[in-house]
Amino acid sequence: xxxxxxxxxxxxxTPAGLVAEVAMEIARAxxxxxxxxxxxxxxxxxxxxxxxxxxxxxxxxxxxxxxTKVTVGD
Length: 74
Description:
With 74 residues, the chain is mainly alpha-helical.
């Protein structure tokens, strides 16, 4: 859509400087929209950490026995 708009501006004889400004503004707006839609690296790390914490907290069973915290004696 943005490429179509720029082509129409050029075809209409819009000055190159104005077309460049419009292109830069479109790129800025698209980048801002992507930034809102895509999680940051920190958010992804937090999600992985929380998933690992949940997995560590889930009990481990063998048959009917809960062996989550079994320690081997001397």
